[in-house]
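Try this one yourself first.
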């Protein structure tokens, strides 16, 4: 029995050795790690594996949280699109910095997700004038660029996108005013729900030449640097505002979604996204706060409802829009018809 016990143990050790060598089993303390289910496998997936580039598109939005122009505190919101199903960990950083940050996207995101990425505090000593976000994934995805100029000026040689033709400035505003109105609504729409923007000819000094837009040209359009706000008003209030008899003969120029006709001192036709505007309809409208206050040749926006006060300065809104959409085609200058 004693001999048989020793033989049994030897046979058992031999079987265990053979099994270990063949990979049949491994002790728990030395078991091979399980392959991660999030896509971070030990072997690199194919380059076209969607997990490798989980973000299809990223757009950032500006939200000023202080009343002062400088020093200023503002948030950068990020909207992420084209996300694969399930929980995602997104890593990002501000372009030009080394620190990576991350956040978790919940499983029920539906392919898109929006969150606050960072809060910035800029003062007169801050050298930055723009923010862009980079995503840590193989395709090196980056966001649009957001500019803010009230705490500092960009370099003299810096350009801001380009236009495919001259953007003219007419007696009532024309193509340049239309371009600026498009920039206003684009700057605040995502966070305020603004549907349209209005711009006055007041404060514009020169149009834009075809080609790269220089700092000098940018400041020539509107150098005051007024913050863009959003108010809500009824269709009847809007018609009254648009029909106001400006002493210089100017009209209020809208962004692309709005078109109207002035005839005999009244608005006879007006559409928003090609649909006629009713008197009771409530519309969210972006403009600089000086226009809203009645200081640009048009009446104060009394009786309207304040919606949003987080926009950038108007010069930066235009710069951001030009860079984001470059090359930019000049608007036709036909959104207002006067008979």
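Now uncover the answer:
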């Amino acid at each position: 029995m004693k001999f048989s016990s020793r033989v049994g143990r030897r046979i058992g050790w031999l079987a265990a050795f053979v099994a270990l060598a063949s990979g049949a089993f491994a002790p728990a303390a030395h078991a091979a790690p399980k392959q991660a289910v999030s896509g971070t496998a030990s072997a690199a997936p194919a380059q076209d594996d969607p997990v490798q580039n989980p973000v299809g598109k990223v757009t950032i939005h500006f939200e000023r949280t202080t009343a002062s122009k400088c020093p200023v505190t503002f948030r950068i919101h990020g909207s992420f699109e084209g996300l694969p199903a399930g929980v995602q960990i997104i890593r990002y950083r501000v372009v030009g910095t080394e620190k990576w940050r991350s956040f978790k996207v919940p499983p029920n995101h539906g392919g898109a997700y929006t969150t606050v990425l960072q809060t910035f505090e800029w003062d007169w000593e801050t050298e930055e004038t723009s923010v862009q976000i980079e995503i840590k994934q193989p395709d090196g995805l980056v966001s649009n660029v957001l500019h803010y100029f009230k705490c500092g000026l960009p370099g003299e040689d810096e350009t801001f996108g380009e236009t495919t033709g001259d953007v003219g400035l007419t007696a009532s505003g024309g193509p340049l005013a239309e371009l600026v109105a498009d920039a206003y609504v684009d700057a605040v729409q995502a966070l305020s729900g603004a549907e349209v923007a209005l711009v006055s000819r007041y404060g514009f000094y020169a149009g834009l030449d075809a080609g790269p837009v220089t700092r000098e040209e940018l400041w020539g359009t509107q150098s005051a640097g007024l913050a863009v706000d959003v108010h809500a008003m009824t269709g009847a209030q809007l018609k009254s505002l648009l029909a106001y008899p400006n002493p210089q003969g100017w009209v209020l120029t809208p962004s692309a979604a709005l078109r109207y006709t002035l005839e005999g001192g009244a608005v006879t036709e007006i559409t928003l996204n090609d649909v006629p505007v009713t008197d009771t309809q409530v519309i969210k409208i972006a403009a600089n706060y000086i226009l809203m206050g009645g200081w640009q040749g048009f009446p104060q926006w009394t009786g309207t409802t304040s919606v949003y006060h987080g926009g950038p300065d108007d010069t930066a809104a235009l710069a951001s829009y030009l860079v984001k959409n470059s090359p930019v085609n000049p608007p036709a200058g036909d959104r207002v018809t006067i008979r």
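Discussion: The radius of gyration is 29 Å. DSSP finds six helices and 19 strands in the chain.
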